[in-house]
Amino acid sequence: MTEINQNGPVLLVEDNPVDLDLTLRALKSQHLENSIITARDGEEALAFIEKWEKGEPLPVVILLDLKMPKVSGLEVLKVLKSHPIYKTIPVVVLTTSSESSDVKMAYELGANSYIMKPVDFEKFLDVAKQIDLYWRVLNKPAD
Amino acid sequence: MLKVFLSPKYKVEVYNRETDLQDNSISLVIVEGLMLSKHSDMLQKLKQEQHPIVLPVLLVTTRKDAGLATSYLWKSIDEMIFLPVQKTELLARIEILLRLRQQSIDAGNLRNDLYNLEKDRKALQKSERRFRIIFENSLAVMLLIDPETYRVMAANKAAEAFYGWKRSQLEKMKISDFNILSAAELKAEMEKVRTSERIYFRFKHRLASGDVRDVEVYSGKVEIDGKDYLHSIIHDVSEQLSAENKLRESEDRYRLISENSTDWIYLTDTEGNFLYISPSCEKITGFAPADFISDPQLLNNIIHPEDLQTTIHHHNNTTKDQEPDEMEFRIINRKKQVSWIRHKCKPIFTDDGKYTGRRGTNQDISEEKKTKEKLRRSEEKFRMVFESANVGKSITLPSGEISVNQAFCDMLGYSQQELQNKKWQEITPAEDVPEIEQKLRLVLVGETDSIRFEKRYVHKSGIYIWADVSTRLMRTLNSKPLYFITTIVDISKKKNAEFGLTKNLNLLNNLAAQVPGVVYQYRLYPDGSSAFPYSSPGMWDIYEVTPEEVREDASPVFTRIHPDDYDYIVETITESARNQTDYESDFRVILPKQGLRWRHSNARPELLEDGSTLWHGIITDVTERKQAEEAREKSEEQYRTLFETMTQGVVHQNAAGEIISANPAAEKILGLSIDQMKGRKSIDPRWKAVDQNKNTLPGEEHPAILALQTGKEVKDFTQGIFNPQKNDYVWILVNSIPQFHKGEKKPYQVFSTFLDITDRKKAEEALSHSHDLMKYIIEHNQSAVAVHDLDLKYLFVSQRYLTEYKVKEKNVIGKHHYEVFPDIPEKWRKVHQKALKGIVSRADEDKFFRKDGSFDWTRWECRPWYQADGSIGGIIVYTEVINEQKRKEEEITKLNQRLEILIESIQQLSAAQSLEKVKEIVAKSARKLIGADGATLVFRENDHCFYVNEDAIQPLWKGKKFPMHSCISGWVMQHKKLVVIEDIFLDNRIPLDVYSPTFVKSLAMVPINISEPIGAIGNYWKEKYTPTETELQLLQTLADATARAIENITLYAELEERVKRRTEQLQAVNKELETFTYSVSHDLKAPLRGIDGYSKLLLDDYGDSLNEEATHFIQTIRNSTLQMNQLIEDLLSYSRLERSEMKNGRIAVKRFMQNLLVNYQEQTNKGGFNIQLDVPDIEIITTSIGLSIVIRNLLENAIKFTAGQPNPKIEIGLKENPATWIISIKDNGVGFDMKYHERIFEIFQRLHRAEDFPGTGIGLAMVAKALQRMGGKVWAESEPHKGSTFFIAIPKTKIQ
Questions:
Q1: Does ipTM surpass 0.85 in this model?
Q2: Distance from CA of B1102 to the nearest CA of A (A)
Q3: CA distance B1080 to chain A (A)
Q4: Is the pTM of this model over 0.90?
Q5: Which of B1085, B1093, B1097 sits opposite A96 (nearest CB)?
Q6: Residues B1266, B1141 contacting (CB under 8 angstroms)
């Protein structure tokens, strides 16, 4: 049983239904313990912030597609990462091309990592491990 | 036991008390262990005293016993050996000890030797030192000589002084340097010394001064510092020797004299003892010199007792001052004979007056005495005879005094007394005296002792008495004439008979005496003999024989005849005799005293009864005449030769001027033969004579005629004469000399010599002509030329020179240069002097100052000119006034400067990118260009003139605007042409209110852009000035350039604007494209993901329940999506490439390639690829991204298309071309047909099927596009199945 350290959900922000479905399948194929919640666009994604404020459990990682209508992925990222509390949530950006300038932008805005679409589980795990580390550090008591 | 061991080799003695261990014959002591302590004292003593020789002590003991010995005992032994011991060991040990002993002995000896040596050496040193001191300080001349090389090793002070060389010099010399004897002499001397008992050498040494001294050299051997030297003491005996020699010489001489003198010479000392007696004493006295010396009384003993007193008296009388007279005494010699001695002596003193003895001479006068006695007696006898003779006798003294006998007196009728006082001359007829005297002279001179002749005496009565006289001269013993004894016999009677004959003879003689030469009778007898029965005394002069000699026989005369003439004489005599014709001949005689003389003989023959011929004749001395004749003949001969052969012509003319003779040279020169010339006169017109100037020469003025008329020589007269042979004139230089007979005033003849100077004349003419020509040429030379001689006097000068230098004098030729130019500066004098020395001076530009201070620019050269013999004859000065040139030059220079300024300005203008810049440039340039006092730049602004900028000495109107109609710039712009105003106050276009506050007096203005003036440029002057054409042109050019510049700037600005806008446009378009591409790719990719994803799921989740075909379908679907994905990616890349920024940077190529290759490592390794990287380790400048894309694509292709090859190989290389880098990637893959070369670089073009080789066909398109953007290009070379090589060319750029 694979699991990420905390039992928080994985927030998947993806507008394309095909991509969404494929990604879910990819994650579930390995029986990921963590629950997966989705947002269909940037607006919905940002709506979650309210939910968390209301006490909903924080996601352990956010998988964020960049190309989205209404509010773009980059905007969401910006908001998230400038939020005093929720900026600690690791964000993994989903890209169509590794050379995309968006990826660079994403990093500049504070993205923790990226995965190229189509997402497969292996990639996800790799990233997760990376995040794990990050997360651990954050969990350390303040020096 | 030991003994047994030792005995055979060594002598062993057992010690007992009595044995003396000091005995030197003991060489080793062996002690037996237990004995040691017993004899320790003894041994110790021994040890202590062992010096210097060691006596080794060997202890033989058991180990046990050894332990018993105390330490001090060890001092007494040298060696120890333990029992039991082997023989060999024992012997060996002993051997060692003995050797030790021996060494100590040797050492001892050595020490002794050294000690002694040291002692000796010290002694030697001491003695050497002593010697050296002596050597140094000795007053005797000493030298130390190396006996082998004979080099002087040392010389002392005395030697220095003696030889005159410094010691340092002497010590460099060899003996041979001053010993001047030859090798042979040296050897002889050495030998002499060796054989005789003499211990010194007699040498001759030469001093530094050159003097040679006789020296005695004492030489001995001496040893110094172990080497042998010759120590020589040199003793100068020159004086001694010369004195000795002199003494010896004088002694010898003296001895010679004395010994050969018949006189007996002696020397006595003060006591009267004989120091020396000559050997003659023996002859005289019969006693030897030794007898006299040994017995001082001997002399007195042999003196005749009667004379002894006188002798003693004589000697006593000699005081030191008095010289006694001669005296005579007799001696009785050994043979008891009496000899008469004449004695003379004198005392001898030294230089300082000390009486040292006496010198005496004794002469044996016995004979003399005897003779005198005899004479006395004979005289007595004679007297008796004399007196009693009945013939006259007289004794006549040579002076003439006579003493006569009675007979003589009777004969002459005188008494004895009367006759006694007369001389014979007084009693001889006066006219006879000379003859008699002559005869007597003969006797006197010794020609004969007696003479007999007949003479007259004058009787007292006056009549003449003939007498036969024979007289004999009596002489003294030493042949001095004493007196004549004459016997006179009266032969008057006989004489009278003979008188006639005698008279005749006398007459004849008298006559003969008048005749110079000899009057003679010559008789030739039939038998061939001949004689001169009579000859006058002149015979002596003629033949140096006396008449008497030849009276009977003529041969003495014939012996005198010159051998060459002898036969001739004989012949002529014979002929004369035969034909009885007169005899005449000239012949030579050789006389003892006179030598060679000429004689002329004239005689008339007479035939006598006996057949002999008697000639009466005269012979005279004709030597002078003959010699004169010969000389004359010779000189005539010489003269004739000269006359014939000389090159000068010689002509003789008589007093009338007719030619009487001419020599061959004259014939040649004049072209006439002597026959043609003879008789011709000088005035003969055929000569066609001319003078030097080619004017006709009248005959009277011919040199010969002149000489005849004036009687004076005419010298060096030049005339021309027509030579008919040459048919031309010849020029001759004539000397005419008149010839006079003795005493005459008018010449009887003139002789002329002349020289053909035609050639010379011609040369002179040519020279004169060429001189004239040169003068002409120089005079008309276009430049100023002057030719001077060595004194700087003018020889030639050109007209130009005279005018250029404004020379007033008409004739400068011959005048001195400084005379004509008295104020000429020193510099020129120096130049002239230099030229006279042979140095050429020149100047291309030189100022020549005139008196008024103005100057001309000149170009000049001053050089020497040379004579035919190469020496400098004078100088030439070329000058040219180059003011005009200079002016032009200056103008050109000025113009050039201005042009430069103009060019610079134009360049600046063309580079100006803003109007501001233009304004800045123009104003400054405009002023600088002309050099005006101010310049302005005016722009048109609608209908105003805007003075935008200025550059002036004082402010003008910068920044001001004026309406166009009111200002001159406006006028210029309106009228589209330039303006020049010389005086602003006189031109009404000028707004005086604007101008008068300014400095401007003159101005010039040009429009900018003549066709459509947009402005103007003005130049201003503070003084009245008219700018030149050129200046205006320059200004206009500047204005035109300004117009262009402004145009350009405007254009440029416009362009800039356009470019900016365009760029903005493009950027906008680019941006759009970017967005577009991005969206497209993103949106295109999304559905692909779906297809790919779900098809995968299908396979993964339901693959089992799918059959093969279904699987295949799904697989194909998947493949297609992959492909599509790739296409989209490629497109994206391609478009990105188009838009991306290509920045250049430095790339280390090799590293770059290596890094790239790493990416493909897996593939290449797996495929077994051989990758060759042939790239130098250099840097190239290009875009890294671009190069990366290019190389990656090419590599991928190379790898792709070589897959399947057995030995896949890829070669990457880099080559440098002048302008590009060429990178090549070569593979040995599938290759392609070159006809598709162009297509392969198009986008999505492929030459292979997808299933054979994957790929979308974008690779090479990317490569091409990338290179296009990089400024390079790509091409390939290939052959199907033979692999491909792809080349890319990257331009060499600099980093921006």
A1: no
A2: 14
A3: 12
A4: no
A5: B1085
A6: no
